[in-house]
User: Fold this.
Amino acid sequence: MTAPGSTPFRHVADSGVDRAAGERSDPDLLARARVDESSRVLVLSGDRAPLVTPERLSWVAAERVPDGAEWAFLGRDGGGRALLAAAFEAGETDPFEAPAGWGALRAVGGTLDAPDAEAFVEALSLARWLLDSSFCPACGALTMVVDAGWSRRCPSCGRQHFPRTDPAVIVAITSAADPDVLLLGSNALWGENRFSCFAGFVEAGESLESAVRREVAEESGIDVVDVQYRGSQAWPYRRSLMLGFIATAADDASARADGDEIAAVRWFTRDEIGAGLAGEGDLRLPGPASIAHRLIRDWHGGAS
Assistant:
């Protein structure tokens, strides 16, 4: 739930697909769906999917999918049609031509309509696990895909394995003294003038609130107060569930980069953030597919 008085934001993957999880135990579900002419398939090549337009994914019939894919049942659309994913490792060539080419989630997720955005996130999250987790982590045996792509069973030791999701916090930091400035950080691996919110994975045995305070202190030197939850976003880079917060600095003057992961921290004015969101000036902000963009945008618009 959101903090009292706050307004949740719309994020990638929030409506449109009925996952129909109760159907996954049917051992013949995928086989039937793959020969059903009404089924629609989202093909993935690495982290890219085919596009009809920049705002719409290109769903295809199962017969158009080349051999060698890992298959999964995503759910059903509003008309009851089965939605499937067919995943391929990234290759030098596309599996087939698409009207508007192929786009990565990072690049097109923010422009897709809600059902397509949700389906893309679900399909990519599941595809990465299917392609990367063929062997049992307990005994090393080759596993079998079951539950219509949603789990793997080891024929050797009998263990069942599921797609993994790792929680991570991401935080926008407001000033203790000036409501019109926001603290952002620049990762050491990024290009010049690229800034974003502070983020990190939740450690074992750690609460979300403790993770927020630890990560922010480690990366920016700031102790935070008034930590407010703003919303979440599934993010397949890699298998993360991003939990968004906004918090207030206890002391603005203590801001400093850790010099390791974070190369620079800086307080930005509301006007500077507005220019960055508009693509003007030197400041480079996260793309609209990300929860970081929404945290920054909502602060700029006064919704935080």
Observations:
- The two ends are 15 Å apart (CA to CA).
